[in-house]
Amino acid sequence: MRPRSRRRHAALITALLVVWIVVIAGLTAARAVLYPRTDSPDRVDAIVVVAGANDDRYVYARHMAERGVANRILVSQPSPGGGDPYSAAIDAHCKNSPVIARDGRRIEIECFEPDVATTEGETTAATRIARERGYESLLVVTYWGHVSRVRIYFEQCFDGPVYVTDTPRPLSKSRKDALLHETGGYFKAFLKPAC
């Protein structure tokens, strides 16, 4: 084989390898976004609710706490008192503390402002609070398309066991929109760790 043919052959092999890697990475990210692994721990030190659409994640976190999963809920509150309906809903959850469970336990709801109004900022703030309070395990609640990315960030930042779940009433975000937005975020989580 002539040197020119060898170079073309090597370039073709390299290009095919790059395409193969991109396809495999894309399929892996798509699977993680569309079909995330969710957890159901019996007990954790705190439940963390990352901010998002006005779905049932706040109610679900409280329901799990009342069932005995935790006595503390940390709620991300990116714009306290923002005035819009979404901020008002979070404000209402934040002002409703403590909650007394049916078994008489006190459930503390603590709202925090993220370091930056992103998933990374929520992760760094929540893990800092968890360390300060001595929490050793966390359950994070978000929507179905965000589960895998939230897991990556919290596992990068938090030293103890991290469990992540979605809500029983899924967000009505389309699979296509979630796939486009969250796949990019998924790659960003690997390329630019939160911690």
Task: Walk me through what this model shows.
- There is one protein chain.
- The chain is α/β, with parallel strands linked by helices.
- α5 (about 145-155) links the parallel β5 and β6 (about 160-165).
- The model has no long low-confidence stretch (mean pLDDT about 80).
- α4 crosses α5 (about 145-155).
- The chain has 6 helices and 6 strands.
What proportion strand? 5-15%
Let me know the largest β-sheet: 6 strands, mixed
Class derived from helix and strand content: alpha/beta
Overall helicity: 40-55%
Number of helical regions: 6
SSE blueprint and pairings:
Blueprint: H1 3-34, E1 46-49, H2 57-66, E2 72-76, H3 85-95, E3 99-100, E4 106-112, H4 119-133, E5 138-141, H5 147-157, E6 162-165, H6 175-191
Parallel strand pairs: 1-2, 1-5, 2-4, 5-6
Antiparallel strand pairs: 3-4
Helix pairs in contact: 1-6, 4-5, 5-6
Features:
49% helix, six-stranded mixed beta sheet, 195 residues
